[in-house]
Protein 1
Amino acid sequence: MDFDVSVVGLYILDVLGRPVERIPDKGNVEFIDQIRLTVAGTAGGTVVDCAKLGLKARAVGAVGADEKADFVLATLQGFGIDTELMQRLPGVPTSATILNIRPNGERPALHVRGASDHFDVAPETDDAVLAPPFVHVGGTGLLRRMDGEPTRRLLAAAKERGRTTTFDLIAATAETLSIVEPLLPYIDYFMPSIEEATDMSGRTDPHDIASFYLDRGAKTCVFTMGAAGSYVASEGVRVQVPAFDIQVVDTTGCGDAYDAGFLAGLHAGYDLETCARFATAASGLVATGLGSDAGIVSFEDTLEKMNTWPIKR
C-alpha cells in the first residue's frame, strides 16, 4: 500500500472531562457532562485528523505494553491508519494526559511522559518510515531520546529522498531553540504556535519572528495564533489568515488539527494561503467538540466549512 504521509513522534492517550469548574475538596464528587478517551499528541492527534481528512496515513511512534496502548492502537487502526511502525515497549507506560476542560475551553493538564521518552527511529527503518511523500515530525520537546541529533538525522534522510517535511513542537521554551535550530535547514514547513516561536526567537512581531527562522534555514513558517488565526511566511509570501467565528468548546488538539489540515491542503495542491484557510477550518472544527479528534468529518465537509463559516472580526 502506498501512503500519503508518515506522522512521526508523540503519541498520547488523553482522558478529558468537561466542564470542570473546580476540583472537589477531599474525597468529594462533582458531576460533569462529558468524559472521553482520545488518541492525542503532536503526532497522534495529527495522524487521526489526517486520516479523517482522507489521507492514507502511517503512524510512527511508541506506546507501552499496557491497557492504554491497546486503546491507542485499536483506535488508530479503526481510523484506517497503518500501525506497523508503532513500537510497543515493555516496562514503560503509554504516555497519557488527564485534561480538565474549563467552561471557557482552557485545559489544565496532568501528564505521564511514558513511552514517548523512549521512542526513536532506527536508520534501518528509514525506507519504511520515509516512503510517503510527506513526513510530519510532531512532539519535539517531549521526545527525550529522539530530540536533537536523531531528529536531525531523520529529517536529513527525508530530504535526501525528496520528501516534503513538516514539523511541530510541544511545550517549547527559549531553551528549546538549541534543539530546533540544527533542524531548520531540513524543514519545509515549520509549524509552532506563535507563543513557542516567540519564546525561542526572543522576538515579538510575527514578521520578525518568521525572518528569524527563515534566515536559519526553514523554507516556510506557519504560526498558529489561536483566536487571531495564523501567519504564513516564506520567500515572497507574508500573509495572516483570520480565524473563523465559532463557538469554542475545547481547544485540545487544535494545533494538531491545523497541522493535519495544512498537510491535506498541500496534498491537494493548494497554495499557501488556501492551505492555511483549510487548516484553520480543520482546527475550528476540533474546537467545537471535546478532544483532539472532535468535529472533523471529512475533507469535503471541512472544505465546505472553510467556504461558508463567518470570519472572526
Protein 2
Amino acid sequence: MGFSIPGAIGAQKAEPKRRPIVMVGDGAFQMTGMELITIAKLKLNPIIVLFNNTIYATLKYCEPPHTAQEHKIPTLDYAKMAEILGGKGITVNSVGDMKNALRVAKDVKDTFTLLNVKIDEKDISPALRTFGEKLGRFVEVSATTKVE
C-alpha cells in the first residue's frame, strides 16, 4: 500500500522513453504522495489517476468490522496539491470530465499530471473487497495464534 507513486519514479527512471500511468487510492496516496516533489524535481511526467473515495477501503471491509471513523480519511484537494508541488492537477467528477482530463494529461509533457477522480465510497472493485475481507480474516487468525 502506498507504493505506486515511488514505483512510478523507478519505472520512468528505468525506461525514460516510456510514460507511466499510475493508479492509486487516496489512502495509499496519503502515505507516499509527497514523492510528487521528487517527480517534479526529476522532471518526470507520469499520469497519476487518484481514486478519491475518502476511505481506506481495505480497512472498511476487513473483519472484524472497523468503525466508520477508523476507515475515513481526511479530504484533500489533490488537484490543487499537484499544482502546488509543480505538476498539473485536474478534478474529475464525471465520465465526460475523465475523457477531457485524459486528453489534457496526454498533452502535458514537461511534468506529472494528477487526476483527482472523485468516486463514491461504495464504488470499489470486487478484488479490493475480497482482499480486505481476506486480510481481516488473516489478521484475526494471526492475533489469536500463540507464539512460543
Protein 3
Amino acid sequence: MRVFRGHSRPVPAPVVLAIGNFDGVHLGHAALVKRLAQVAMECQLVPTVLTFEPHPREFFAPDSAPARLTTLREKLELLGECGARQAVICPFNAAFAALSADEFVAQVLVRGCQVRHLIIGDDFRFGRGRSGDFAMLQEAGQRFGFAVEAMGSVLADGERVSSSAVRRALLAGDMEHAARLLGRPYIIDGQVSHGQKLGRQIGFATANLRIKHNPLPMTGVFAVEVSGLGDKPLPGVANLGVRPTVGGTRPLLEVHLFDFDRDIYGAHISVRFVHKLRDEQRFPNIDALKAQIAADAAAARAFFEL
C-alpha cells in the first residue's frame, strides 16, 4: 500500500476515496472498502482510504477516549487486505480540527485527494463543529465534479456492527462475539522483543510484544493462534496486561507457543485471540503464578484439542 502523510501535497492522480477512522476494520469497514475497490475498478482509478491520526476523540478528549482496537500499522494492513491500495493519513491536530466543512472539502478532498468518487459511512460528519454532512457533500460534489455515496450499516445477527460494539465484546471477554463483528478473530501484531526471561526460568518461555494500545481494549489470559512463523498458525496461550505479580506497570503481551523452541527475537508476528480463559490477576508468589500458568496452558491445549 502506498501511504501519504497529510494533504498539503496532492496525490499523484485522481482517486476513488473512502473516509473513516476505520478502528478495528470490522465487517462494516470491510464492506465499505470492498465497495471502494469495486467502484475504483469501474472508474479505473486507485482505491484510496483517508483516515486520521490520532483518532479525533483522542485529540478532543484524551482522558476519556475509547481504547484503540488497532495501531496505525495494523489498520493499514487490514485495509490493504480489504482492497485499498493507497492511504492518506491526515494528522488530526488543532489546525486540522479548525477546518470548516467547506475548507475540508476544498483543501482535503478536492485539492489534496483529487477525489472523483467519494464513499462514506451513513453517520459521517466532518469539519469544525461536525457541521458537514452527506447533503453538503452531495452539493459540493455537483460544484467540484465528484460523485458521493453513503454506505448503510452492516448487521451481524441483527446487531449493528461498530467499533463500539467490538470494544464491548472484547471487554466482556466474548472473543467469539468480537470475531463475528470483525469477520475474523481479534488480532494484535508486533515485533518479538527481549523480556525479563522469567517465563523461561519457570518452564514457560514466552514471545514478548510491547503494546502500543493505550488503554488496552481488554486484559486477561487467552487461547491464541500465532501467524508469521511458518506456513500455518501456531497454537499457544497468552497473557495480555501489566503482570501485577511481578510488579509490571506497562502493557505487555506474552505468548507461550506449544511444542515450539525456536529463537524468534525480532520476528514480526500476529496474535489471534480466539478464546478467553480468565482475567489477569495478582498471585501471592512465583510458585502460585507458575501453577496457574500450567493450568492455563492445559486449558488452552484442551480448547485446541491438543
